[in-house]
Write a structure and sequence with these properties.
The complex is a heterodimer. Chain A is mostly helical. Chain A has helices spanning 2-18, 22-48, 53-84, 91-112, 114-117, 119-146, 156-176, 187-190, 202-224, 226-236, 238-243, 248-274, 283-296, 301-323, 335-349, 358-363; strands at 181-182, 192-195, 198-201, 276-277. Chain B is an all-alpha fold. Chain B has helices at 3-12, 18-38, 41-45, 57-76, 82-109, 121-128, 133-156, 159-177, 179-186, 190-199, 207-231, 240-261, 263-288, 297-311, 318-321, 329-348, 356-375, 380-383, 405-427, 430-440, 442-447, 452-478, 488-501, 506-522, 530-544, 553-568, 573-583, and strands at residues 49-51, 55-56, 396-397, 400-401. The chains are: A mainly alpha, B mainly alpha.
Chain lengths: 364, 588
Amino acid sequence: MADVAAGRALIPRLRTLSRFTFVDVILWCLRIGVSAVVVGGTIGTLIKGRYEAAQWFDLVMFGLTLGSVYALIALGYTMVYGVLRLINFAHGDIMMTGAFSGYFIASALDYSGFLNDSPFLGMGAVLAVAMTTSTSLALLTERFAYRPFRNVRGLAPLICAIGVSFFLEQTFRGFFGPSIRSYPDPKWQAAAIDVFGLNVPRVDIIVISLAIVAMLILYLIVQKTRMGTAMRAVSEDTDAAAMMGIDVNKVVVFTFALGGAMAGIAGVFYAFVFKQVYFFMGFQPGVKAFGAAVLGGIGSIPGAMLGGFFLGLVESVGPALFLDGIGIPAPYQLRDLIAFTLLIMVLIFRPHGILGERMAKKRA
Amino acid sequence: MTAQSITRGVRRKRTQSPLHRAIITGVSFGVMAVYLAMVGLLPMIHARAVIVDVLTMAHAALLAIGLGAGAYVARGERDKPAATIVLHGLIAGAISGGLLAVLVVAMNTIDLRSIFISLSPQTSDMLTLELDLEYAVPLLVAAAAVLGALGVLLARSPPTVRKPVLIGCSAVLFFGVFQELIQIMMQFNEAIGDVREFLYTWEGLTPEGAGAIFAIATGASVLSTRRRAGAGGSSWWQSRNGQLVKAGIAVVVLVLLPILAGSYIGQVLMLVGLYILMGMGLNLEVGLAGLLDLGFVAFFAVGAYTTALLTADSVHALATFTAIPHMSFWAAMPIAVLISVIVGVLFGIPVLGVRGDYLAVATLGLGEIVRVIVQSDAAAPLLAGAQGILQIPKPRIGDIELADPVALFFLTLVCAAVAAYFAWRLESSRLGRAWMAIRDDEDVAQALGINLVKVKLLAYGLGAAFAGLSGSIFAVMLTSVYPSSFQLLVSINVLALIIVGGMGSLPGVIVGSLALVGLPELLREFGENRYLFYGVALIVMMRIRPEGLWPSATRRRELHDFAGDLELEEPPPAVAGVAASVEHRPGE
């Protein structure tokens, strides 16, 4: 068996050498081009020396903050994909629902002054409401939109998920209006604290630390509890898990609930960072976080966390590091370009990601 | 959630009693009504009257929901005595009305408007018919209950009664809702003008007019049913000649309609035409080759920008800083199509090895990259950034400038016809069959000797050609291009229309564009809310009718088994008890 496998691996490799088609040429050009931009840009920027250490530090901190939000969202993608092999396209919008409900509580508390007086309770309330909303919406979408497609293969589940994404966005637009609302910014959040002589906005510290706490809790739930074990079993092999007496339905619901809760937290943090909520806010972070989940290896929980942080860092540092060096004007407008390029490069060249291996082959 | 998905979930549980089921039906329909009010749809369509001073579209929708609740109850209980079902219909209706009443009371006691922008006093007036609360609440419940019962009766009545009544109602709805359009078309002739004055006032349908239309439509329906029953078998219309005549009539209507109805309808039809073009392109990729492409808008953008750069009278035109001369639209269009094809192939090469769901996300990312680049300052010297390229001349034939929307519509129509011919020929060609083979199973297709690389790249390239053509016309229609016209929304829009119409089906593309682009454009107040329908349409179509409204013959055959599986989810009543007892495991 092993010999055959090795032989199989060897023969295509020889063949690729002899049949190096124009497609391969172009793919190699793509790899080399992107690497050249990255390396050349980095060297160029470092030689120019336009940025000081403090600025780099700011960018890295912002990247980690953004990354922790991406990581929280990516967890939802990766868990659902692991259990159902479904790209929950609406997951970004689940995050948006969390941000929106958090916004309403936060602005009410801000108006009454409670948010300023007792930050911990206030933030706790905002997070609790956001998590409740997004968890319940995640469960509703699972029940009414995804469950009927549990055993349907092909494009139908994904198309349905796109529909759900649109439905959620437009529902929130209809309910709460199309305007961009600014998220309250209490004093304790805006203040900066001093870390080794560098100013760090307090909101960054809050977001990063709380996100890490949330991820740790999630990791413990998945690793230590009965339900978490069942979840891992189902994502390993659904049929076998069902035969062992695991209620797959319950596991799926549990997975969506966990993902929804994480998305709710992510939504509030996203609003903390960007200070605004609107109905379309979930889409782009959603797609990017999916990229992060794939980058980390879809189905792998530590992978999603890693991928999220990595994506956040690249997106934040990238424009200054890669693009400024090769003389592109206004590189910050191209932040999304870097994130999406990373997404596509991962999907094309490493669909199994850093930590995942078996998932990609099964469906992709 | 959509009522369909809720109630479908409900239907599968066979153990519940009919009363329980009626209650759940009532709740679902009530939630649907409350949702429509809260999301702003009811207040929005309240502005459009079906019958002047009698019935607005919002009230018509509420009536339909009440009737629907009753009809749904009746559908599930065919074998029960009529009185029981009517009672259940009453209950379901009353519950749905009760939920609306709760909303009304809540609106009048708490200030919900600061959160839900649609719950304005006007919405409240619409729901209460401007009555005081103590009258409005019982009225709502009672009216809904009566509607529920009526719905049951309607559903239980024999088809000879039900069908004419429904057709009559639809006719009134049609003539009422599209009154502006029909009135404009009726102004051409004196004799028709008199009919118009009987049917319409300036605001809409008169009650007498509505009555007349209802009577005529009902009568016609009764007569035609009788005659068909007498003739029996398949009619001439179903034959091949009949279908050709039908297609001919459709073409004649398409040509005459904008001439008769003026430039507004021309504009709408033109937009429909552009989406048909794009739909046919995406149909090659998704419908035939099974490559779900969410970055399709990129090709549309390439077509539009190429035309703009080649023809515009502005500093951004290529002619101002290269040796390429200013071109007319006719010269630029083929180049735009060609460049779209090249971009399509280039777009396809990196994602050749990506399959299924990943492909959708990868193409989405590619589309977003194109948009980000076009919008950025980095590419602004060439593509004008967010300001866009202005002053694109309209196409000319000799000395005639095609400036009028109707003239441009004819241009679109001709292009769409030519493109449709190509698409139709492609479908049954060797290439088309190869596409279908890779859609069904890529590995098997490859094993059978299909060159995946070639076939996939052709799908991207040819699909892009259609979008490029569409973009090229779009550029001259607006006489300017802005990056904001090329959002992801366009891709989703095109995807939604081919799914609603039927994947892999050419007539489906046309039906889908008319339904998803034309209809919301005619009901102007829909505005942005149309995207809500796209979302719902995607979910509901995938759930209920995955083959689309007008499926292709192959697709219908393929999905027949799938539809059979769906039916099996509802076991017949005799088996249901057994199945339920098997499913009911201890500990649940």
